[in-house]
Amino acid sequence: MSEVHAGAAPARRPVLVVDDDRDIRETLRELIEDEGYEVATAKNGAEALEQVRAVRPGIVLLDLFMPGMDGAEFRRLQLEDPEIAGVPVVVISAAVGLEDRVAEMRPIDHLEKPIRLDALLAVVARHCR
Amino acid sequence: MVEDSEDDARLVSLELRRGGYAPDLERVASPSSLRVALERGGWDVVVSGHAPPRLNGLDALQIVRRFSADLPFLLVSGGLGEEGAVDALKQGASDFVTKQNLGRLVTAIARELEDAQVRREKRAAHEALEQAVAARDAFLSIASHELKTPLTALQLQLQSLTRSVQQGDAGTERVSERIRSVARSTERLGELVNRLLDVSRITRGGEMELVKEEFDLGELAREVASRFQDAAAEAGSDLRIVLDGPVRGMWDRMRIDAIVTNLLSNAVKYGEGKSIEVTVRAQGVRALLEVTDHGIGIAADDQARIFGRFERAVSERHYGGFGVGLWVARRVAEEHGGRVRVTSRPGRGSTFTLELPRENAVGGAR
Questions:
Q1: Which of A112, A129, B159, B175 is most buried per CB count within 10 Å?
Q2: What's the pTM?
Q3: Distance (Å) from the alpha carbon of B332 to chain A's nearest alpha carbon
Q4: Which domains are delineated in chain A?
């Protein structure tokens, strides 16, 4: 299957926000939409897998600890599926001392909560052109 | 007793009996039999001759010390000079007694037993302390994670609000909505901090000052449930409340509110999107509030544990929270003269019941 969207308008790739906290999820959505991106959201790893397959985001902003499927498990399943394995992931975590576990997930970046918005938007801009 | 000579052993035994001990004495004479006896355990003290042919005192000492740093080891010897004695003490012997002065054996043993007891108590206290520190560390790391979540929401909402205002949206519905989200997050942070304070208060003193007033438990349940409608709907759970007339009593309204809030938040969190029922009814002198979900349930082994402090049946990686809610709930209920209990089946859901006495209500017994 070809990855090229022949003939389509050169739209920017959407951003997928994955966080179980509704306030964080919705505020991130507003902020990123304000920058002119399309945003999809998911509240756990299972929903995130569905969304990655459905919307083919340019980047996934991934929370670690979520009820049901957590961020690490999402990442493991994502990397197993060659169709979606290439979608870059930024891990956003609130807990301390998880550097090793996060590194194993091979994210393109790791941001800690509270989130620095300029850093977040910079990563998004690099991957969703 | 490490001793080759039957006679010497009998002498020591006699001396011990004269000193008021009824020793459960076993004589070993070789490294292997010493090890077997040590493995079996239950010894209070090792008494060793200095130079039994098959196992000399210093070798026996080494075997004993490899086995336990604490077990008192007394050397009894005829020909051990001052230097030999100092050597043995350096290598970890507790004391030494000469055969000529065997009368000192009983006092030496009594002191060693006492010292060993003190060492055991010290070690137990030290271990308990280390465990408490570890539990507190774990709690602090969970607490900081829990506080960071609403803090992150708040910080993002403020940035979003700032942008709206900079873009000249002041006074618009968009800005009002963003201000409302900021207020909501602030409230949430405040609630978390209050719960943390409750935990530290209960942990420190155990005393809890209840502020009792008369109110209807059903009405309170309805209030709390209405706060959870959104969260339940988002989780896909249908939240129903069944009231059976007013159930009034004298209770601490804020603390009971916190218990019901905790039970409902657990029901939503662990309910897997299935229906949730809250019922309130009177049963004799008791007021009963039940919260039933049909979610993941709790294994029988975990059902008592979850009421402990910093405990939860599942990993905090998957479910947020301090892991102290049910512990606080239990303590508050007990302070009222009531209790919190659970019946549950894994995969079928759980029913948490808050039982409170009604006799303090106006028109009641007291």
A1: B159
A2: 0.59
A3: 28
A4: 15-127 (3.40.50.2300)
Nearest to B275 by CA among B241, B314, B303: B241
Q: Are residues B242 and B342 in the same domain?
A: yes
In B, which residues are within 8 Å of A21 by CB distance? 149-150, 152-153
Residue B246 lies in a domain: yes
Cβ of A114 and B148 within 8 Å? Answer: yes
Residue B40 falls inside a structural domain = yes
- For residue A47, give how far its alpha carbon lies from the nearest alpha carbon of chain B (Å): 13
Instruction: Mark which residues 129-168 of B lie under 8 Å from A by CB.
Output: 141, 144-145, 148-153, 155-157, 159-160, 163
- The answer to whether position B364 is within a domain reads no
For residue A33, give the chain B residue with the closest CA. B160
Q: At what angle do helices B82-90 and B57-67 cross, to 10 degrees?
A: 20
B185/B270 same-domain check? no
For B237-265, the pLDDT digits (tens) are: 999 999 988 999 999 998 898 899 889 98
User: Domain total for chain B?
Assistant: 3
Domain range spanning residue B197? 131-204
pLDDT per residue, tens digit, chain B (366 aa), is 888 778 888 888 888 888 888 888 888 888 888 999 999 888 889 988 877 667 788 888 889 988 888 888 988 877 667 777 788 888 888 888 887 788 888 888 889 889 988 988 999 999 888 887 877 777 777 777 778 888 898 999 898 888 888 888 777 888 888 888 888 888 888 877 877 777 766 666 556 678 899 999 999 999 999 888 888 888 889 999 999 889 999 999 988 988 998 899 889 988 888 999 999 999 989 999 999 999 888 888 778 777 776 555 554 444 445 566 787 788 889 889 999 999 988 889 999 999 999 975 554 433
Residue A47 pLDDT > 80? yes
Q: Which of A70, A113, A117 sits opposite B317 (nearest CB)?
A: A70
Quick: pLDDT tens for B86-108.
888 888 888 888 877 888 888 88
**Residues on A contacting B at a C-beta cutoff of 8 Å:** 20-24, 26-28, 30-31, 34, 64-68, 70, 94-97, 113-115, 117
Residue B236 within a domain? yes
